[in-house]
């Protein structure tokens, strides 16, 4: 059974009572740079200290939050995402990513899929298998129910299996020391 991301948000009525302010399924965002991947930008908070008691709009841009901000993203990784793709127009793909997922490519250093973010990420595997590789070539395979705390280290994600992998990433913007 494939999980379909679904977002429900609570808030307050004009009289201050608890109520549901949103209930729906977000549309996936796809980009040519990651064929077959589906990004679901579920929710985010502005940088700084989050507030409660109002009915905020989600903040999903830029892709990575600044200090004190947060993002929740479901990302369905295509099978065999680690395999090389045929030659493509990388500038056109970068432009598409910048338009649809601004800031996503900023932490990449041009050496493959390794990247470093100024976030503490709670990465939870919901479906399939995904490999997390660190810059010293250590790796671990995540399976459903596995959670990784990705603590600002240089890393890469790969789906080496024949099935899609669905991850939930909760990103908290942090200050690098």
TrEMBL record:
Annotated coiled-coil positions are none
InterPro entries linked to this entry: Cupin_2, OryJ/VirC-like, RmlC-like_jellyroll, RmlC_Cupin_sf
Ranges where the Cupin type-2 domain occurs: 111-167
Q: What is this protein called?
A: Cupin domain-containing protein
Q: Report the source organism.
A: Nocardioides szechwanensis
